Amino acid sequence: VKTLITDGATVTKGQPLFQIDPSDYSARVRQLEGVVSADKANLELMLNTVERNRPLFEKKLISEGDFDAITTKVSSAKAQLQVDEANLDIARLNFERCSINAPLSGVCSKIYVDDGNLVAAGLTKLTNIRSYDPMNIEFSVSEQYLPIIRKAMSEGEVPIDVITQDNNTIVKGYLKFMDNTVNMQGGTILLRGQVPNPEIKLWARQFVNINIYASTVKDAVMVPECTVQFGKLGEYLYAVTSENKTSMRIVKTGVRYNNLIQIVSGVEAGERVVVLGQLMLAPDVLVAEAGQKKEAAMPSNKTSEKPSK
C-alpha cells in the first residue's frame, strides 16, 4: 500500500487516501476483456450458424436433432458470455478499489500503515475519519425537564448553545433527538444536539456546556451558582439581613443559565446573598459588605431559559 495523506490530515469526501499496487488487478481486467471479446465472437458465430442451417432444417435437409444441437450452442454461448461479463465487472471493481478514497469529509486519525505494508480487506486498519461538520453532541439532563423538552420539541425546533469550557466559543444549533428511556441509575434522559462546525471549533469528546432554550421562566430569581451549597438538609445559601448578619436559607433550585442558578424558593428578589467565603460562615455572623464580586450580591429578578446543563 502507498499512503497519500499524513497523520491528522483534513480530507474531503472522495479524496484518495491510499493506493494499492494495481498491477495484478489491471492485468486481470485486460485478461477478462479479452475473454469477453472472444465470447461475443463465438456467440455471433453460433447465431450465424443457426441462420445458415434454418433453411436446411425447414427443407428437411438436416434432422431436427442436428438443428437442436446448433441452437443449444447459442444458449450455451450466451450463458458463457454472461458469466465472463460478471467476472469482468468484479475485476473492474477490484481495480477501482486499489484507490482507497475518503467515504466522508472529516479529520483523519494517525495512519496505521507504512508504505509497502501488506493489507487485507476487512482485516487491516488504515486510519479513522471523524466527521466534524455538522457536529453531533450527546448529553444528558435530569428527567425533571422531560415534559418541558418534549413539549418544546413537539412545537418545533429547540435552539441550543454549545459553550466551550473557557467560555470563548459559543456555537448555536438545534436539539435533534431525545432518547425513549430514562436512565434509572442517574434519573437522566439522553439528548442529542447538532451544530454547524465548518471551522472545527468543537472537537470530539471535548467538554462543553449546553444551554437548551426549551421555555422561558418569567421574573425568575437568579443568583451566582457559587452561592448555593449542599449540606445535610439539602441545598442552602447564606442571605444577609438588614443588620448585616448571615441567615442560612434552605432553598429549592431550578434551572441553570450562564453560571447563574434559579432560586425557586427560600430567597426573595432583592435580598443580598453571600457569594464568597460561605464555608467559614455560620448563622447570625456579622459580615461586612465588600461589593458583589467579593462578599455579597443581589439576586437578580431576571428572565432565564430552561433547562440548561
Structure, explained:
This protein is an alpha+beta fold and about 300 residues long. It has 3 domains: about 80 residues, Helix hairpin bin (Helix Hairpins, Orthogonal Bundle), CATH 1.10.287.470; about 80 residues, Elongation Factor Tu (Ef-tu), domain 3 (Beta Barrel); about 80 residues, conserved putative lor/sdh protein from methanococcus maripaludis s2 fold (Beta Barrel). About 25% of the residues lie in helices and about 35% in strands. It contains 3 helices and 21 strands. It has a 6-stranded antiparallel beta sheet with strand order 7-10-9-8-11-21, with helices on one face. Strands 13, 14, 15, 18 and 19 form a 5-stranded antiparallel beta sheet that branches.
Offer a concise description of the structure.
The chain has 309 residues and is an alpha+beta fold.
Low-confidence stretches: 292-296, 302-306
> How far apart, in Å, are the first and last alpha carbons?
47 Å
CATH class of the largest domain: Mainly Beta
Task: Report helical residue fraction.
Answer: 25-40%
| Number of separate helices | 3
How much of the sequence lies in strands comes to: 25-35%
Structural class: alpha+beta
Mean pLDDT value: 88
Order of strands side by side in the largest beta sheet? Answer: 7-10-9-8-11-21
**Rounded radius of gyration (Å):** 37 Å
Reported by name, the CATH topology of the largest domain is conserved putative lor/sdh protein from methanococcus maripaludis s2 fold
Strands, count: 21
Kindly give the count of domains.
Answer: 3
Give the H and E element order.
Answer: EEEHHEEEEHEEEEEEEEEEEEEE
Please give the CATH architecture of the largest domain: Beta Barrel
Largest sheet: 6 strands, antiparallel
